[in-house]
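WARN retry 2 of 3 for item q-0093 after timeout on previous attempt; input resubmitted unchanged.
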Amino acid sequence: MMQSESFTGAASAGPDYAGDISCGTDSCSVVIFGETGAGKSSLVNLIARTEAAPTSPDAMGCTDGTKEYMRDVLIQDKLLKVKLLDTAGLNEGSGGTVPAEEARKVLRKLLQKRIEQDDVNLLVYCVQGTKQGRHGIKALCRNYEICNSEAQGRIPIVLVVTGLENMKVEMEEWWKNNEQFISEYSMTFAGHACITTLTDDAGLKERHDQSYHAVCKLIEECRTRNRHKKYGPKKIVLFGEAGAGKSSVVNLIAGKEIATTSNDMQRCTLHWKDHTIDFGGESYTVFDTVGLEEPQLGIKGYLESVENAYRLIKELDQQGGIDLLLFCIRAGRLSSAIQSNYRLFHEFLCEKKVPIVLVFTHLEREKRMEDWWERQQSFFEKTYGIRVTDHACITAANRLDGRHKLLYEESRGAVRDLVKKLTADEQKSSWTGGNKRFVSFMRKLKELLPEPLDLKKKDIVSRLIQRCSLSPDVAKQLAEMIKQG
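OK item q-0093 returned
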């Protein structure tokens, strides 16, 4: 049964902020879930900055159903109307306020309904940071899977760790100590906050305020990211060898010169430039990305790709994922790197979850451009093992006259039609990024290294610290996970 309480106004903002607050008010719907005693109701009160939800000091749950609270929260000088759904505790046992099995069923139904109605922006997994042991590990994974199976990458899930008020070091240390364990158990979170919700100890005021701001920041970041996923530009990764005509294809799609067509772009694997293109009432971000020049990477090339891969995956994840891959190939110049580039992007980066289109360039001399693919299709499938969603045979040369000018316009229409068709809302891919994706990608990329493998962990750590601004602890954990793969 749903119970609803409303708290209007901006009391949490305080009167000193009134003149700086944006007039427009955005909204955000947040579902909070977790075990009994994890501090879900206390988290509601932390965000609301008032005793809105009843709490219990013992392990017995105090929330006997889903309760809804509305609150205006000030984030970055802007009011955000937050709907908080406090759910019954999981794993309470048969004698609890809500039996464990019943609580899980209610949570699943709630998520299914809210997702179907497009009425949930964020899932918050609330866990008690002091809970240890084998039972705690199993429960952590089981409860995560309940929501992850319903969200399926459509709704971000964040981890909020409570009960950390007595940590002698910074509360964030909990995450550093447990990040590798979380990744090993295949749990992926869009963000995290290590907090305390205690309010009755004056000595904890600084940590309490720090916790409030950390959670509010988490809500805003994930709300913005999820909005980008739903309403932002469609993301296209365009890749291929140097000289294939990638930048010319960008200009072809855009209908104007927005990308340089010279060969001065850095030739480091996965180095990229992004371009915004608008046509047909839609907006697209095209990532013009350097592929492999050789079928194998050297050790140096692998280490250079560490930085580029991390930044690319992070940027794509922040912008909502990948909607389409465009593999640019120069017709008549087929190399052994074609198969490696296909694997690098379609298999390694996207795990075959994103539609891929082959774009064959330099076909202006063909009597009928499509004839080239009809002659070559079986060769690509048998020799390279390449299976694609679709293809386009085009010319991207825009300074030719007569018939070639007509072919250029025809080519623009062909590529644009494929882009529109394969990035339509119902065609959304399930690609998600994060550190787990990065580690998986770098592990698979080692398959393109020559034997014997002489990849040193310290070199990976150095790249991640110096080039990606990661902390030494996180860099070491990621490097170790890459080495183990």
